[in-house]
């Protein structure tokens, strides 16, 4: 190392060679990056697009950064070429040569006004913000190493905009176009089954989704960076992902509409079978109600002292709606037929259940009488098995109960009391005949049977 010069210690030949090698390698790296940025598809798209919003602002800043980058790169290239020329004068450079190399390679310099148009240096490399504030002014001096840092910052700023815009344009417009094509297919199907705006909620959803996709595509094309989410923390230029939330909502809404249209299409395919099933269910309900009304008359004639519930009439409202459903099918109004069929199917089953419940309620006294008759005959058979069929008291009580049960109108309460008297008398007779233990067992058995 030689004596100190105006820029510090003069470099030795080895130091000068190493500095030249390092700065040449950095020059080649910057040049390669600049050429790659120049050929980047995202940059070409940005240059040819009608940009708006945040993308227009950031691309204007990035273009200015690239302009400064090329200008500074040319200045850097010229200085490095001059240093190469000095080094190539002699195999063993003189002290004056080394001093000049030290000044060129390490020394600070004030850039000419033509190099930086706005007079400012870039922001720190990779922060993605605009240049033009906070950097050193042109009056401050900078070394070749400082120029490399400046160029890296401008390059990162430009690449961040280019890569982010390219990622959004690569991800969203094609997906939006595919979704729009699917939307057109669904709209055609919807129109064929009568699902139209103003007539069906699904038709209104289709209209809104169409408008949303049209607006979304226009916004994505003109302002892609509005749909970019940067990666958290420190990240390389272009770090992040496209924001697809609006697209995803539109896709979900279209899927909901598609399912609704599929349901309407299914109605068109099986509506006749469903209408036939509905007619059958309502017919069975009407027949059940008719049977209940007939049974009510029979109960009133055969059973006394019993409250018999009234039987309602047929479901005329359901029949009218069924007629309307058939008319919807005839006119191919599937979007109206679909919800009506679903409602009718549920209410028709309810109507059949209600008719069956009324029949059961009306015929309950006849069931009670049949149960009492069966119990009376069962005890008579048990008494006969024990050889006591000729017992006068049992015969009298059996005849009394039988007259009540087989007469019309039948008093169910009195008949039940008569059956119980016969049952108890039979148990008492059995106890008396077989003794205490056996009789107690027989009585217990008789009570269990009752």
Automatic annotation (TrEMBL):
Keywords: Coiled coil. Residues 109-138 are annotated as: Disordered. Residues 13-40, 247-295 form a coiled coil. It comes from the Bacteria. This is Uncharacterized protein. It comes from Streptomyces nanshensis.
């Amino acid at each position: 190392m030689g004596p100190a010069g105006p820029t510090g210690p003069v470099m030795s030949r080895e130091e000068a060679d190493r500095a030249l090698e390092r700065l040449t390698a950095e020059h080649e790296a910057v040049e390669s990056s600049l050429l790659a940025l120049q050929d980047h598809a995202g940059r070409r798209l940005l240059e040819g697009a009608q940009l708006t919003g945040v993308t227009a602002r950031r691309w204007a800043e990035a273009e200015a950064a690239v302009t400064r980058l090329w200008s500074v790169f040319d200045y850097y290239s010229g200085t490095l070429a001059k240093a190469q020329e000095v080094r190539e004068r002699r195999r063993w450079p003189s002290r004056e040569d080394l001093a000049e190399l030290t000044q060129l390679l390490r020394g600070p310099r004030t850039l000419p006004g033509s190099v930086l148009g706005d007079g400012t240096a870039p922001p720190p490399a990779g922060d993605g913000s605009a240049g033009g504030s906070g950097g050193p002014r042109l009056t401050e001096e900078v070394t070749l190493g400082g120029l490399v840092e400046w160029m890296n910052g401008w390059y990162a700023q430009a690449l961040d905009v280019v890569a982010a815009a390219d990622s959004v344009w690569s991800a969203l417009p094609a997906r939006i176009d595919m979704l729009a094509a699917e939307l057109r297919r669904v709209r055609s199907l919807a129109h064929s089954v009568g699902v139209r705006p103003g007539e069906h909620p699904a038709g209104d959803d289709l209209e809104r989704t169409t408008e949303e996709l049209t607006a979304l595509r226009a916004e994505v094309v003109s302002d892609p960076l509005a749909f970019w989410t940067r990666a958290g923390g420190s990240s390389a230029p272009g770090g992040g992902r496209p924001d697809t939330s609006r697209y995803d909502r539109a896709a979900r809404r279209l899927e909901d509409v598609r399912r609704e249209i599929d349901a309407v299409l299914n109605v068109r395919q099986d509506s006749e079978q469903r209408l036939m099933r509905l007619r059958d269910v309502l017919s069975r309900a009407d027949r059940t109600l008719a049977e209940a009304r007939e049974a009510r008359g029979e109960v009133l004639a055969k059973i006394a002292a019993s409250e018999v519930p009234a039987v309602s009439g047929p479901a005329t409202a359901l029949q009218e709606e069924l007629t309307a459903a058939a008319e919807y099918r005839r006119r191919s109004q599937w979007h109206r037929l679909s919800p009506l069929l679903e409602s009718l199917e549920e209410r028709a089953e309810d109507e059949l259940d209600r008719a069956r419940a009324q029949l059961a309620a009306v015929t309950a006294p006849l069931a009670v009488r049949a149960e009492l008759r069966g119990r009376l005959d069962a005890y008579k058979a048990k008494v006969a098995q024990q050889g006591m069929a000729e017992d006068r008291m049992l015969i009298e009580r059996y005849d009394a109960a039988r007259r009540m049960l087989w007469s019309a109108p039948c008093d169910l309460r009195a008949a039940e009391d008569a059956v119980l008297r016969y049952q108890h008398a039979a148990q008492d007779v059995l106890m008396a005949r077989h003794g205490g233990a056996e009789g107690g067992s027989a009585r217990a058995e008789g009570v269990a049977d009752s």
